[in-house]
Write a structure and sequence with these properties.
About 25% of the residues lie in helices and about 25% in strands. The chain is an alpha/beta fold.
Length: about 625
């Protein structure tokens, strides 16, 4: 028998109270003066056996009631669980960044060495992880099986997610804790911006480091152009390299040539004619880097242009929509847009058929946007439409009331300080930024903003980007059906030079694609986001239900081998526990006591004893 709160057992000393009262207040025979016998020698009063037994019974009932009450407060339970021993979890990184020649062999060697280091009292488990984690070996005492499990792990084309590995390890250890050793190349991209992980309070986290590759070549983007295809080939090494780039359609080579790749992102244009309805691939030959990111796939199926309504002060005659119009026209050859620029006052005159054809609305101005027009926009978003609001000087907050629904409120005012600032993505894994690639997402911070709005943040908002002063730059609103984004500045270059920067056009395109749910994302997915029924392998795929084709590519972030320090890696573990916060665990004594609930029986028995005590006391009165 065990107790959840054994300190309450000290309450058993209270049984001394009725015992003392019984001894001190023992019944004595009354002394009655009587003249006739007052000279007779005194003799002790003699009690019969019956009253004495009743008094003892009454004392026993009172003592029993106090003991049962103490037992109920101590919360007894039968602890039939087998004591758990600490666990050492060896987490092997199997992501794309571990696929260079010799890296997995080094990971196997380090993992086997960690098995040898497992303390004698620990069990050992093996976890393999990329963007997801899988338990390769459940906790065991078999060290040979652990080594075999480590050596069975092979590299995939998935992304690195340290949080997934630590979460899986925490689930194996439970509250008993132990040690987690992560065998990895410490790729910095394995942590999202601001991401942290938690492990049990009794656990420690270590890292066994595999040397990253000194340089890697990767095709990080590909798009169809009017005269062929353009690709972005990234060289992460410190020096320029000559490499062979190959263009193929349905596995048939159309063009190949050697190009010089400078450090960083390199644009490569291939001029071969591309047939419609095929799958193209661009490959760079890189024997020393990661093999999984050397090739990128692209669907050549033609798409009808998506209609975008651009609402700007002055309509097409004004200059507010110029940069946005150019970005939509030139930024998506593989998924074209048909932009219609109109003034705010004309929004209310669009008929139902025109609204049904609109995929997204870009709201750049509100002059003349009356109640009926605001109602049309609100109905469009409520029906599942996409809306992007650029909070420039031409937008009045009062005219946006109700457009984003009753629970999503915009509260911003122009900043008169006009101090220069820049902005950066806060969540690079968000579809808007992930589709841009690491280089393009980083280029967003090149623009200088002299005027920006202050966007309100609340329970139904999500900040996707921030200015360097901490204020929100890009906000997504949590709507039931539609999608809405607020960019806290203009998109016409009036208060910033962002439209003149390379990242502007792809950023506008991806914002529109995201809010409109256009097939840009549906035609191409990363391995981490493959739909159900589609294999997590790069290449062309078919959705089993609809039969629609798409291509699966690796996450371009995974192509950057830039490492982080061990200290920076461990710093992402939740600092509340030196190893993280304890995950929810419902297998301890609390659960067993709650299931048995013996304290209820003790309390019910105490009440029954008190009823018996009252009956005996009344009988003796």
């Amino acid at each position: 028998m065990s107790f959840l709160f054994p300190a309450f057992l000290l309450g058993a000393v209270t049984i001394a109270i009725p015992i003392l009262l019984h001894l001190v207040r023992r019944e004595r025979g009354p002394v009655v003066p009587f003249s006739a016998v007052r000279f007779v020698r005194r003799s002790p009063a003699v009690r019969t056996r019956r009253p004495r037994l009743r008094e003892l019974l009454l004392l026993l009932l009172r003592v029993t009631a106090l003991l049962l009450l103490t037992l109920a407060f101590a919360r007894p339970f039968v602890d039939d669980a087998v004591p758990e021993r600490p666990i050492t979890v060896i987490a092997i990184d199997r992501s794309l960044s571990m696929s260079a020649p010799g890296q997995m062999e080094e990971a196997h060697r380090l993992g086997a060495a960690e098995v040898d280091r497992v303390p004698a009292g620990h069990r050992v488990a093996v976890v393999a992880f990329d963007d997801r984690a899988a338990v390769v070996l459940e906790p065991t005492d078999d060290r040979a099986a652990a080594v075999a499990a480590v050596e069975s792990v092979s590299a995939t084309a998935g992304s690195t997610r340290y949080a997934a590995a630590l979460s899986s390890a925490s689930g194996l250890m439970g509250a008993e804790g132990g040690r987690v050793t992560v065998v990895t190349d410490l790729q910095a991209a394995g942590w999202s911006d601001g991401e942290a992980a938690a492990v049990p309070r009794a656990a420690t986290v270590e890292a066994a480091v595999v040397d990253p590759v000194p340089g890697n070549l990767a095709v990080t983007a590909a798009a169809r152009t009017a005269d062929g295809l353009s690709a972005v080939v990234r060289n992460t090494g410190p020096e320029a390299r000559d490499a062979l780039v190959v263009l193929a359609v349905d596995d048939a080579v159309l063009e190949s040539r050697v190009v010089t790749l400078e450090p960083g992102a390199n644009g490569v244009r291939l001029g071969s004619a591309l047939p419609a309805g095929a799958v193209a691939s661009v490959e760079v030959v890189d024997p020393d880097g990661y093999a999984g990111d050397n090739r990128r796939y692209l669907l050549l199926d033609p798409l009808p242009p998506a209609r975008v309504l651009v609402v700007a002060n002055g309509g097409r005659r004004g200059s507010d929509a110029y940069f946005v119009d150019r970005a939509l026209a030139a930024g998506a050859e593989d998924a074209p847009f048909a932009a219609r620029v109109t003034e705010p006052g004309a929004v209310s005159s669009l008929d139902r058929g025109e609204w049904e054809a609109v995929a997204a609305v870009l709201l750049l101005g509100t002059d003349g946007l009356e109640r009926e027009g605001r109602g049309r926009l609100a109905a469009f978003v409520a029906a599942g439409g996409g809306l992007v609001v650029a909070a420039g000087r031409g937008v009045e907050p009062a005219r946006l009331a109700g457009v984003l629904g009753p629970d999503a409120r915009i509260d911003f005012e122009p900043d008169a300080g006009e101090r220069p600032r820049r902005w950066v993505p806060a969540d690079r894994r968000h579809p808007v930024f992930r589709a841009l690639g690491e280089a393009a997402a980083s280029a967003l911070g090149e623009g200088t903003f002299l005027r920006a709005a202050v966007a309100g943040e609340g329970a139904r908002t999500r900040v996707l980007g921030r200015f360097d002063d901490g204020t929100a730059a890009l906000v997504e609103y949590d709507l039931d059906a539609g999608r809405a984004l607020l960019f806290a500045s203009d998109l016409n270059g009036a208060g910033n030079d962002f439209p003149r920067r390379p990242g502007f056009a792809p950023f506008v395109v991806e914002m529109v694609r995201y809010v409109a749910r256009l097939p840009g994302g549906a035609r191409e997915v990363t391995i981490a986001d493959v739909p159900d029924g589609v294999s997590a392998v790069a290449g062309a795929a078919v959705l089993p239900e609809s039969g629609r084709r798409l291509v699966v590519n690796v996450d371009p972030r995974e192509s950057d081998p830039a490492p982080m320090t061990v200290e920076a890696f461990l710093g992402r573990v939740d600092p509340r526990t030196a190893g993280g916060a304890a995950p929810d665990d419902d297998s301890g004594p609390e659960r067993r006591e709650r299931e048995q609930a013996y304290w209820w029986y003790a309390l019910a028995a105490m009440l029954a004893v008190l009823v018996g005590e009252a009956w005996v006391a009344r009988a003796m009165a």
